[in-house]
Amino acid sequence: MIRFVILFGFSFMFFMLHYTGDINKYINMKYAYLSISAVVIMGLLSIFEFVRVSRQQIAEEKKEAALAAGGHAEELECRHEAHDDHTHHHDHGHTHGNDTRLKRFISYFILFVPIFTGLFLPAYALDSSFVKAKGFSFPSFDENIQNNPGAHQFLKPDSSVFYAKDDYVNVKNKELEQFINRDEVILTDADYLKGMEVIYNTPEAFMGKSIGFDGFAYKGQQVDGNHYFVFRFGFIHCVADSGVFGMLVEFPKNTQIKDDDWVHVNGKLTWELYQPFKQTIPVLKVTDWKPIETPKDPYVYRST
């Protein structure tokens, strides 16, 4: 019956993540069909396991009833013979049984942990404290996350790791065409990651253009009073390749913003030397900005 509880627990956990909307804090919703499939498959498996165990219990009850009705004497004799053999091997069997039960307990405990955390612990939305704890870096334009596999990405989205080299060149050119002819590049939730990647891949094509986007503020290292990073947490595929993406923004003088304040910014793209990275990076020089409410879904996802 414990297998039924585990299978049903996982199915119910994924169902609740979808029902509450918290599933988008773990995966790119473009792949939501995978978790929906998990709900269906694990639900069916839990039903199958419940039926199997129920039938097994019914069969055992019938067997016990048959023994009770006609085989008391023979059963007692067999038990007596089995008892002698069991006594001879008692110590070894006891030790082996304890080891098996311990391993089974550990296995079940490991499986119960994600069910418990998924159902009862809140899904915490990431904020600037994650950036402070992890720090961030900005690889030069000819580098990508293949040099550091498994690392979270920061500032510049990079989907090149998911393509062959020649295929990624084609993807870059195709996506550049979607943005290059816009008079004003306003990045929405739907195209935020794609647009940021295009801008960082070919910043010279967007110099002097008006660009706008939403994000939360983060002061960062060695940044003067007029500069803040404006970020969005994003998922390329899932939480394993998530990161914090955006750019350095130059606000008007005497602008007062706190970490995690959400803002909408519009401005012109320029270059600046950012000393902690020891390189020149794209910077948005603000012409207009306003505070905004925290979005219902603070994350953005990579779309095709």
Name some characteristics of this structure:
304 residues; alpha/beta; elongated; 5-stranded mixed β-barrel
Write structural notes for this entry.
By secondary structure, the chain is an alpha/beta fold. Helices cover 46% and strands 20% of the residues. The protein contains 7 helices and 8 strands. It has helices at 2-20, 32-70, 72-88, 90-120, 128-134, 165-180, 192-201; strands spanning 153-155, 184-186, 210-218, 227-235, 242-250, 262-274, 279-291, 299-301. A 5-stranded mixed barrel has the order 3-4-5-7-6. β4 and β5 (242-250) form a beta hairpin. α1 (2-20) packs antiparallel against α2, α1 (2-20) packs parallel to α4 (90-120) and α6 (165-180) crosses α7 (192-201). The chain is elongated. Mean pLDDT is 76; it is low at 86-91 and 139-146.
- What pattern of helices and strands is seen along the backbone? HHHHHEHEHEEEEEE
Q: What is the typical, i.e. mean, pLDDT? A: 76
**What's the shape?**
elongated
Q: Could you tell me the radius of gyration in angstroms?
A: 29 Å
Oligomer: single chain
What structural class should be given to the helix and strand makeup? Answer: alpha/beta
Query: Alpha-carbon distance between the termini?
Result: 43 Å
**Widest β-sheet, arrangement of strands:** 3-4-5-7-6
Helical fraction:
40-55%
